[in-house]
Amino acid sequence: xxxxxxxxxxxxRDYGAPVPNGFPIFEAGEAENAANALGGPVWVVKSQIxxxxxxx
Length: 56
Fold this sequence. Notes:
The chain is an all-alpha fold. 32% of the residues lie in helices and 0% in strands. It comes from Hansschlegelia zhihuaiae.
C-alpha cells in the first residue's frame, strides 16, 4: 500500500485506533486555519511526497 501519512491516519481512526490530531494542507493559505483549529503556541510541519526511498 502506497499512501500518505494523513491517509493512513484516517484509516486507523476509522477502525478506532488512537491517532494524534492533524490536518493535511494542500495550499499555503490553509496553514493558518489549520493551526488555529489545533490551538496551542507551537506547531510542527511535516512535508510529505511520494519520491521513492530515503536516499538509499
